[in-house]
């Protein structure tokens, strides 16, 4: 006799039935990671006083730090450029069907930065900074960088901060008596956004003009030089933040 066909039913698990325990499913699928936007090319200009007579003076702390940044990144050596010195990557050489061609870098990393050391006196550095900025944006490909949408960053000494302390501000904010910054603000006008990074050099106890002048124009002591050079990693990180749009 054929077995009796019975309809089988599926048992519903009880809340305490461990045999049916399953991990909770995620409430929603994770969103795919957004691609990182390309970094902004930077022209980083350090202002100070020219010639070896003013090398390693407090007023030229920006020069000292920028040279250290270039060395840290193993960027190309400085060479003469528009009355100052520039370090910029050369164009990449690629083999194409038409032969070897020079292709500008995309500035997707620190290789897209150019460093410029001013060759004019601090208090009148504005016109020189504007000239190199305009040239860099207009002819960036000449230096191997697509710089149409680049950003200008000025590195300078900061009298109002302790030696080696680093600050970052919008370029158009108060110059606080810094004549070099005032000169750049006047040259660039209010329609050019830029960023400035200050490196503290300390202020003397007296605020007399001649005392302050002697302070900023004297050579750094070995201890001051070490503290100013020690600011290099922080300045480098700020530059990367600016390039990435974090600052």
TrEMBL record:
The keyword Metal-binding does not apply. Residues 1-35 are annotated as: Disordered. Residues 22-31 have a biased composition (Low complexity). It comes from the Eukaryota. Keywords: Hydrolase, RNA-binding, tRNA-binding. Residues 1-10 have a biased composition (Basic residues). One of its GO terms (molecular function) is tRNA binding. Transmembrane segments: none annotated. This is peptidyl-tRNA hydrolase. The lineage of its organism: Eukaryota, Fungi, Dikarya, Ascomycota, Pezizomycotina.
